[in-house]
Amino acid sequence: MKKFYFRLYTVNNNFKKQFLSISFLFFLMLYTGTHAIAQCPVVNVTPATSCGGVAGAGPCNLLTASGNADTYVWSPLAGLYTNCTHTIPYTGTNTTTVYAAPTFYTEYTVTGTILASGCSTTATARVNYTPPAPIVTPNPAVICLGDPAIKLKVLSTPNTAQFCSGPLNIPVADNNPAGASNNIAVSGLPANSTITEINVTINMTHTRIGNMVFVLRAPNGQILNLDYHLTASGGTGPTTGFVNTIISSAGITALSAGVNPYTGTFKPDLFGPGGGGGFGAGGPTGMLPTATTWALLYSVPNGNWTLGFYDGITGDVGILTSWCLGINYTLGILPATPAVWTPAAGLFMDPAATIPYIAGTQRDSVWARPTPAGVYPYQVTTQGLPPTLCTTATNFVSNNSNSTITFNVKNNHPYPIRMLQIDSRTLAAGTALVYAYYKTSAINGPPGAISAANGWVQFGAAAITGTGSAVQPFISNLQFVIPAGLLMAYVYRQLQLPMHLTCLTAL
């Protein structure tokens, strides 16, 4: 690099000319150089939207990348395969083709890179999951001519997972609220599963099982009372303990109605932290019940589940020898469209068979009464649904006079979503400028300085004419991506007119 030093004198035009000529030469030297600018590759993916296959079965759902890149790498890896039957997982290698069979709606990204320059470009393909074949009950269905119509119903696809401790030898101290506990690690439950039942199987030797209290703690921290001194009865006398005693969310029999060794399925006692019936606490020390229903345990199925227990009455002892956690869940039908039945002939919308089923109508149950006598095969079709639009995330009262609004948004989905639009209303008619900022961590209170130095990044702006009377679009076509599972903070600033945030829409 050459350095130039200048002095400017105003008393002599010759010096001015010299300065100008040197300055001109300086700029010529700056702009006569040649700079090579690497171009980014062109990357496309087809199809842009599609329905995926079913892992291990098909049908083929081929995604193809094209363009002038040297390498093509796909992400995320989950649900991608290298063969048509979706049995060989894709591992992140360079390939122009993959097969997609996700278990939930997924947006896949292919990154094309030119190796010589290192420049890359991405393209995306959105793949909706294909639900498993629906299950219809009863199947087969048999009716006689003249019989009432028989109800046909689509059930969700059932799945069962069981996790067991294996042999244990955990003694429980006599009449000690500290008790003991044991963990079972649960993993592999799909992100889009819906839990329908949880059951706990307990095996314990105990000379008086009515002395015992059991609780279950879920990975989300919620604790449910399973057994409280045999439904606060204390039992009827000496026992051998629990042998394959199942306490289930589907149970209907109270533990107090059981008999030694209490083999069978029972409902939980569901006592609170203070217990009852003249006995002690509803759980061991540090594990007092917090949940009143099983559903409160379901939000985080994968992780450590803990069985806590203690002996609350003096004179008898026991040993936990094993326990198991069973989780029943559905997968595939939820979320999915209701079923479409074909052919429509012989099907009805009501039990009396007076309202004919209309072809193409989406219903998970119909009534069948075909005539004349014969065999009538019916086909049932369901379709996976894309994720629904997010509902209102923050709703401020209309008399909020502050023009800077802060709020947090969490993407609860296991895939990225897009914030497309922010709607709001102004308190008075007139023009206004609005700006949107984000921060990659949640806030709790004032946002501080709205600046890059404070972590705020602008991602939207618009000039609007507020009506002062109705909700209206403020910033549209945002295309702002919120990563899977991320809780983010947002600031919405309005100049000239105060406002309140009423709707956040994401896809």
In words, what does this structure look like?
This protein has four domains: 43-128, Immunoglobulin-like (Sandwich); 132-157 and 334-385; 159-330, Galactose-binding domain-like (Jelly Rolls, Sandwich); 404-506, Hypothetical Protein Tm1070, Chain: A. With 507 residues, the chain is mainly beta. The protein contains two helices and 32 strands. The longest helix has 19 residues, at 13-31. Mean pLDDT is 79; it is low at 1-35, 388-402 and 495-507. Strand 7 and strand 8 form a beta hairpin. The strands form eight sheets. Strands 11, 12, 14, 17, 18 and 20 form a six-stranded mixed beta sheet that branches. A four-stranded antiparallel beta sheet has the order 1-3-6-5, with no helix packed on it.
What characteristic shape results from the CA principal axes? globular
Q: Main beta sheet: strand number and arrangement?
A: 6 strands, mixed
Distance from N terminus to C terminus (CA atoms, Å) equals: 52 Å
Overall pLDDT score: 79
Number of helices: 2
Low-pLDDT stretches: 1-35, 388-402, 495-507
Main CATH class of the largest domain: Mainly Beta
Provide the gyration radius in Å: 33 Å
Strand content: 35-45%
Structural class: mainly beta
